Amino acid sequence: MRKEEEKIKALILSHLYPNKENPISGLFVAQQVEEMSKQGCAVRVISPLPWVPFFLAGWKPKWQGLKKVAWSAEINGVKVFYPRFPVLPKKLARFLIPFSYYLFVKRLVQKIRGDFPFNLIHAHTALPDGYAAMLIARRLNLPFVVTIHGYDLDPANLQKRIWKRSLKKVITKA
Q1: d(C-alpha 156, C-alpha 150), whole Å
Q2: Fewer Cβ atoms within 10 Å of its own Cβ: the N or the C terminal residue of the chain?
Q3: CATH number (domain holding residue 87)
Q4: What are 12-28's pLDDT values in tens digits?
Q5: To the nearest 5 percent, what fractions of the chain are helix, strand and coil?
């Protein structure tokens, strides 16, 4: 294990992470985070969820479940935060999701940093998590890494100019 002053303290950003209502969401991310912890890395996870207005929550079971997820939890020894952020329908404003994500987690990031001075940001998926990580890392002058998953490179997404440009920017800066 590394000396305390050299220890990796990672903030993980992933909208794919298990929670009480969806225990298999992003299980592959949780397994990697747990392994990082076993290897001596200190970790905290931010797993933003879409904010669902109360008057819409009853329309879909998935939305009802989102309302039930606690704001924070400890899962297998890892502290996980589930902040909410507004999301417009993807067809209307998909390109705004990374900015909305960033704006609604940046205060939480500052709070976490006060208690847990992380020295690395690790995002799972380039969009939206990696884009938000890029903005946070720039603001805090920290390194960030991105693990790209299949959806990021979906040919249908790559046909969209804004997606391709944003993806390239995240990959170049990481």
Answers
A1: 12
A2: N
A3: 3.40.50.2000
A4: 999 999 999 899 999 99
A5: 50, 20, 30
